[in-house]
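quick one before i forget lol
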Amino acid sequence: MEKGSLVSVPYSVEINDVVISAVQTQPSDEIYRRGVDHFNRLYQEGATIPRVMAISIHPYLTGVPHRIGHLERLYDHILGHEGVMHWTGSEILDWFTAEERRLGPGA
């Protein structure tokens, strides 16, 4: 068996359209309201330590006409802040491994 590193990229159930729309049956704008509150806290904390906000969406839920505008507003809010990066999981992993190499494991 090969040995190597295992890295877990954050995956949120709080900002997840399956939970919000299908399980909790929240109103269409809940992803926006919850997402803004979630982001604002992480952005505040991010002033001193990097934070990752995972937004888990599925086109069949959030891509529908009565929900997609709320997701677009959420992204507008998030990306309207200085220093915010919009990355895929692969890009987060690349950044993390580069930082780990730079600072050393466990830093």
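fyi The two ends are 28 Å apart (CA to CA).
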